[in-house]
Write a structure and sequence with these properties.
Length: 713
Amino acid sequence: MSAQNDKAVIDSIKKHLKESVKYHTQYQLKESIEEAAKVVDLAHKINNAYYKAQGYNNIGFNYELIKDYENAEINYGKALVNAQQSDSTFLISWLYNNIANVYSEGFRDIDKALFYYQKALTIARELDRPNDELAPTLNIGWTFIDESKPNEAYPFLIDAQKIINELGDKTASVQINFLFGKYHLLRKEYAQADIFFEKATVQGMELNMLVELSDVWLAKSQMYSEMEKPDLAYKALTKHNEYKDKVFNASNLSQLEITKARFSVDEYRRELDKTRREKEFQESLAYKNRIITIVAFITAFIFWVLLVTIFYNYKAKNRLTKLLEQNNKELEAAKDEAEKLSQLKSQFISTVSHELRTPLYGVVGLTSLLLENNKLDTKDQHFLKSLKFSGDYLLNLINDVLQISKIESNKVKIHNTTTNIRNLIDNIVGSFNYQLEHRHNKMHVELDEGLPIMLKLDSVRISQILINLLGNAVKFTSNGNIWLRLKVKSIDGQFVKLGVEIEDDGPGIPEDKQEAIFENFSQIEREKTEYQGTGLGLSIVKKLVSLYGSDIFLESKQGKGSKFFFDLNLEIDHEAEAVEVKQLAEDVPVKNRHILVVEDNKINQIVTQNILEKENFACTIVSNGEAAIKVVEEQEFDLILMDLNMPIMNGYQASKEIRKFNTHTPIVALTASELDEIKVKVLESGINDIIIKPYDNYEFYQTIFRNINASRN
């Protein structure tokens, strides 16, 4: 067939493809399959694998809509083979997604469905095509929703919502609103579910999306039934059947069966033609084989000559192979040594971190207690403030080195919990009092009036971000001002988009250095700067902000200050039962509350006891796990503060023994180890919570109040 004829056939194929898609969206499935079958037939004539794949895909899509999953899988499989032959990567991604739909909705093989969805999503992300990324992202969330796993579904629904907003896809908007409605329905949040179902209904009616409307009304019927509103549940079910009948009426299905049969006959005809062509090819091949036999005899002699040559070459190759094997052994040994060194480095950093944090707990704690003594003269207070500043600086240095090591090992994860954002900001800003006084700076906090109070966020990671940015602003500014602003950019139901800004009127950052400052160990050289740091802070900030799916930006001019800003998309906890620390303190009558402190370090005993007695807690102190078990057997305590690393019996062993006869008294681990290293072991030991030393007094009291309050309920 000539190139001109091929072009004419391809033009005809494109026309039939367009018609097939149009009929499908209008639920004229018979006509849609007929047009797709024409595409397959024409693509076979010019042996075009790409358009074969398109035709089979459209046929499978129609079968899937009427829940004929066996025929859908067969046609998707044919489409995938042809797509792979044509090396059409984006089409392969589509087909993995469609095959996953069949396993998810038809065969209920969830593991296979998620496997194919993930393959589709990986290809789409490699191609950097948000339009192709949307379907598998949406469908993974849909699958988890169908499996009644709202928490697993939620991240994918959020990602899908972002892509839909970016693309402005109205059809997908109906589906995501339906899924958010199902998400809230699974969580028994009926008011929120109803809002999203209503959005999906209005949009679906505008676009005449009959299948989606049928699904929405079925979900509404379930919701009303759970809310014990049988009349509304019945009306919703009636609506579901009404829309379902519009798509799947008996006349359409009858015509569709005829179309399916006709397509099967065409497929049989093509297979028959293929068999005939193969027979002709075999006859031609037999003739060629006779010619080849003659040539083979001539070639045999030449081969014998070559064999002798190969034998000598083999000896040389054998010597080279042995040399390569020796080199490989040396490389393997070097690789093993590098891995051992990497493990030793991680162990060293973890050990040094623990060993430094333990004495720092005593330094920072005792200094804080001494600073509260009003009898000290101005000179002594100044010395103590300097000592506390040095202790805090050393602690931040340790945390930065450990943090960057964890980030580079991909061990840092976001753990969102309900947090009072205003209290968190007050606590962070309060930690800079001495630095602000020392450098004669003023801190201005500007929070939008509409800022929600209770947000779901990782308070540890947010604190690290803000402390690093505010710390830079303070240490590089003298006799100036620092502003911390939280702006509400938008609120959509239970989600808020916050704009966070940290600005100073300090010396500013040269333009040629602004990109490099976010790299590890990067420093701006300043001749008169008295405080340089490690150069890790902004690198850590950039990586932590990226974990929230955001990016940090900088505006700065020399002599006019700097402004760092980024956005955070956070969930609002409208029904939060958590309350502020002051309210918790009022709920828990502190007076006469008795706490057992299990700690072997004498300085740490003094610090912990003084901090507790400051809030009117009674304390009993023991130095090891065995002593703790004996005293718990003899006395009742409201809470146990348990150090984990002690002589005679450590905190893990002691907690396990206490839990054998006492399951109600809360045990809180008090440790200088990193949370990720001990979390599993702590939970297995029956310990309720963890406080990392050195801690902030605010977090310390909050943890104690929360656990005592929980044990009373």
